[in-house]
Amino acid sequence: MTAPANAAVRCDGVVQIYKTREIEVVALRDIDLVVEDGESVALLGPSGAGKSTLLWLLAGLLRPSAGRLWLGGAEVGRLGPRALDRLRAAQIGVVMQNPARNLIPYASAAQNVAFAQRAVRRRARRPAGELLERVGLTSVRDRPAGLLSGGEQQRLAVAIALANRPRLLLADEPTSQLDAESGRAVVELIKEMGPTSVVVTHDPRVSEAMSRTVTIRDGRIGAEGRDGEDFVVIGREGAVQLPPEYHELLPPGSMARVEPLRDGVILRRAGE
Ligand SMILES: Nc1ncnc2c1ncn2[C@@H]1O[C@H](COP(=O)(O)OP(=O)(O)OP(=O)(O)O)[C@@H](O)[C@H]1O
């Protein structure tokens, strides 16, 4: 199968298994997801659901244990390490969950931006001064990144991720340490400069600003939201994850009758 030319991301049955000496953790199973150019996706779900793992896969930092993944039309499994590095540097901007991990602590804020820009041609670079201004860091541009506050580091990480005009912006909780005003500024910046973005978030300000939400539960895509309406996603083999608010009516493990309708089915608790 070839990925559609316009898809920024395509996952086809992606599985991620972490193996340690003692245990295997299936973090993601059978993920089917297409993100078209220009879409902004909020990735939602409870802790441990697999959101960060999916983001790492989309960043090309992990290779799927099974299934196929295309980034900008290139299949990750077919790229050698250098081609994958080049694709990441030229096309993908990443903001990791712990902002300090995105930064060189002893280099200044401005040097951190310049360092990220070494990998791409001058033409592709966004002016560092303008970026730092947009995230409100002009006054601390010469301060070592390690001495910035958590919120300042987070804003710097967003500026760095956008510095090379990425085709795809990936961010893990980019507003978790920001007050309302800086959070809003970061959301605006992501919308404006990150034309295609996938953002893990618990922050309603972020998810409301995105064009689509995707909810992961227990390693699977359980639901999607578009235009303010939530839908469950019918998974491979016809599996449906009932949203937690219906678990009281149909507890996990209980039996239900399936009654067909013309355009769908009804589930009714057995024995009623
Ligand atoms: N390096 C690893 N080795 C083993 N298991 C891991 C590793 N990283 C994550 N996991 C496990 O994979 C599952 C998914 O983790 P992940 O960090 O992707 O979830 P998450 O939805 O991002 O959670 P949170 O919202 O708490 O950050 C969890 O069960 C986690 O314990």
Walk me through this protein's architecture.
The protein folds into two domains: 7-241, Rossmann fold (3-Layer(aba) Sandwich), CATH 3.40.50; 246-272, no CATH class. The chain is built from seven helices and 13 strands. It has helices at 51-58, 81-91, 109-117, 128-134, 150-161, 180-193, 204-209, and strands at 7-19, 24-36, 40-44, 66-71, 74-75, 92-95, 168-172, 197-200, 212-217, 220-226, 229-232, 256-260, 265-269. A hairpin with a 4-residue loop joins strand 1 and strand 2. The longest helix is centred in the last third of the chain and has 14 residues, at 180-193. It is globular, with a radius of gyration of 20 Å. The site of adenosine-5'-triphosphate has 12 residues, from strand 2 and helix 1. It comes from Microbispora siamensis. InterPro entries: AAA+_ATPase, ABC_transporter-like_ATP-bd, ABC_transporter-like_CS, ABC_transpr_LolD-like, P-loop_NTPase. This is ABC transporter ATP-binding protein.
